[in-house]
UniProtKB/TrEMBL annotation:
The ATP-grasp domain, residue ranges: 9-215
InterPro entries in the cross-refs: ATP-grasp, ATP-grasp_succ-CoA_synth-type, ATP_grasp_subdomain_1, SUCC_ACL_C, Succ_CoA_ligase-like_bsu, Succinyl-CoA_synth-like
EC number(s) recorded for this UniProt protein: 6.2.1.5
Region (Disordered): 209-259
Highest classification ranks of the organism: Bacteria, Bacillati, Cyanobacteriota, Cyanophyceae, Oscillatoriophycideae
Name of the protein described by the UniProt record: Succinate--CoA ligase (ADP-forming)
Record key words, sorted: ATP-binding, Ligase, Magnesium, Metal-binding, Nucleotide-binding
Length: 409
């Protein structure tokens, strides 16, 4: 379960992670009583990433402009989701932006610290700069400091950023979370650090131990559906921004649901033969490392993001289908490794997307191998469903990486 930004920052505040003065906005009229001095930034509170590119973040200088901007954002769907709430926040002039995260390694089932000196919207484009530190023993400040040194930080930043990482880790453990992310962590010209944006993913199985998080889940889901019903557009009539990704000539966007065109997927290109499709920065990094460790060469990869945002019918299936088209555009790609972790129902959509993609490729006389990692699913039933399609199943990441490398030879 992904929390909204303002909810994540409420948890940051509890841990004394520095955040900017902010105010929740439930409707544009609330801005007439804004307690934060201008200029401010208005942020759409939705689960999807890429809010800035989609027009969901606007800087304003006065009340008149703020009300007008809020009206626009409230009526702007981002990946089919309309915001119920906006966050008004003080403007911050950052001299540098970092990326920090604490997440659960899906393979080793242990916490991992991630950090990069390249934060903000383009973090995935510089994933090769991402540093990681596995927490393989009892946590101590040593782990946080080690991450900052691997990131290449110097001087006072080593201590100030280490302190932020320590607080993120404490939040991660105390709330049984799957992810705590700050992107970006702003650094002012004077060296002050500030969490400018944040993401928290709660573990659904642990919500019973954290009623405060469970309450946030209920509010968010019910309010999101209510906004959907109040939309002035029917589901098929909503205006959508044009996708910015390059699409394969064989891919027909008209046959897809609106989510396929509502926001672009970012394709990262590497010189290799094994394409990768994952969900989440951490899992993507782990998959790249696993393929390299097995002696393979990763090619194009796409991170489709959190599965929690794909609640509309067929939304995840269409997104996976688009991702497969993107990573396989380069004819040097011999294998696609699909490593998307989710619930059983989400996995069913992923299997359907892979099957549909391969059937379409077979009709176009292009044959490509897919390695599909599945966790806790009936492999025999999946094999029966996939029939004679060129799909290898794997239950672990190492097994999937080894199969991909073998198939690419």
């Amino acid at each position: 379960m992904d929390l909204l930004e303002y909810q994540a920052k409420s948890l940051f505040r509890q841990m004394a992670i520095p955040i900017l003065p902010s105010q929740r906005i439930d409707n544009p009229a609330d801005l007439k009583g804004l307690k934060i001095p201008y200029p401010v930034v208005l942020k759409s509170q939705v689960r999807a990433g890429g809010r800035g590119r989609a027009g969901g973040i606007k800087f304003v200088e006065n009340t008149i402009d703020a009300v007008a901007a809020a009206q626009t954002i409230f009526n702007l769907p981002i990946e089919e989701e309309y915001p119920q709430v906006l966050l008004a926040e003080a403007k911050y002039n950052a001299d540098q932006e970092l990326y920090l995260a604490v997440l659960l390694d899906p393979v080793a089932r242990r916490p991992v610290l991630l950090g990069s000196r390249q934060g903000g919207m383009d973090v995935e484009g510089s994933i090769e700069q991402m540093q990681q530190v596995a927490v393989d023993q009892e946590f101590s400040p040593f782990y946080a400091r080690r991450l900052t040194l691997k990131m290449g930080l110097q001087g006072d930043l080593i201590q100030s950023v280490s302190t932020i990482v320590e607080k993120m880790y404490r939040l991660f453990v105390e709330k049984d979370l799957d992810l705590v992310e700050i992107n970006p962590l702003g650094i002012s010209p004077t060296g002050e650090v500030m969490a400018l944006d944040g993401k928290v993913t709660a573990n659904d199985d642990a919500l019973g131990r954290h009623p405060d998080l469970a309450a946030l889940s209920g509010k968010r889901q019910s309010s999101g559906l209510a906004r959907e019903r109040r939309s002035p557009y029917a589901s098929g009539d909503r205006p959508h921004s044009q996708s910015k990704v390059q699409q394969s000539p064989e891919f027909d966007p008209k046959s897809k649901s609106p989510i396929s065109n509502s926001e672009s997927l970012q394709l990262i290109e590497l010189d290799g033969t094994i394409a990768i499709l994952c969900n989440g920065v951490g899992l993507t990094m782990a998959t790249l490392d696993a393929v390299t460790h097995q002696g393979g060469k990763p090619a194009n990869f796409v991170n489709i993001g959190s599965l929690d945002r794909y609640y509309a019918a067929n939304a995840l299936r269409d997104r996976v289908d688009l991702g497969l088209e993107l990573v396989a555009q380069d004819k040097s790609v011999k294998v696609i490794l699909v490593n998307i972790l989710g619930s059983a129902s989400k996995t069913e959509e992923i299997i359907a997307a892979v099957a549909g993609y391969l059937e379409r490729k077979a009709r176009a006389n292009r044959h490509i191998q897919v390695v599909l990692r599945l966790v806790e699913l009936d492999a025999d039933a999946v094999k029966k469903r996939l029939g004679q399609l060129p799909v290898q199943l794997a239950s672990t990441l190492d097994e999937a990486a080894a199969a991909s490398v073998s198939s690419a030879k």
